[in-house]
Amino acid sequence: MSAKTKLNPDSYQFTVRPLSKEEGGGYLVEYPDVPGCMSDGETVEEAIANGREALRDCIDVFRESGWKLPKPSIEAAQWRQRLSRTLYLKLRKQAEDEGVSINSYVAAIIAEAIGSKQNRLEKAR
User: Fold this and answer.
1) 78/54 Cα distance (integer angstroms)
2) What are the average pLDDT values for consecutive 10-residue runs of the chain, which has 125 residues?
3) Count of the separate structural domains present in the chain
4) How far apart are CA 118 and CA 107, in angstroms?
5) How far apart (Å, rounded) are the C-alpha atoms in residues 109 and 21?
6) Residue-number span of the structural domain to which 88 is assigned
7) Residue 1 lies in a domain
8) Is 84 helix (H, G, I), strand (E, B) or coil?
9) In this structure, what CATH number is given to the domain that contains residue 17?
10) pTM reported for the whole predicted model
11) Which of 85, 86, 95, 109 could form a disulfide linkage to 105, CB 3.0–4.6 angstroms apart?
């Protein structure tokens, strides 16, 4: 990928998982397509913001080293959702406060909900 090519960090999928107390608590964000690219934070939103920064740093390292940057393995899916103006404004404000795009923020909320549900199901087994 040439330096002229504009890469959209949102094209890379990430995972979010809670860290155990033994691991230090908080949340871990990993980018499976970019080896070693991960970060953490006290909240999901902080972990995602830190993860995006880590991804930018990893992309810079790949470019500066002349290494070929891995392509995203899965193209991002898209859907449109109509929201009330009030809900949209609240989401936009929270995303701005966290320093992430509204898309990343909503994806984090969904990922956290799915992760929480999976954890509850696994504990119930």
Assistant:
1) 24
2) 57 87 91 93 90 93 90 76 94 89 84 77 76
3) 1
4) 16
5) 22
6) 9-124
7) no
8) coil
9) 3.30.160.250
10) 0.59
11) 95
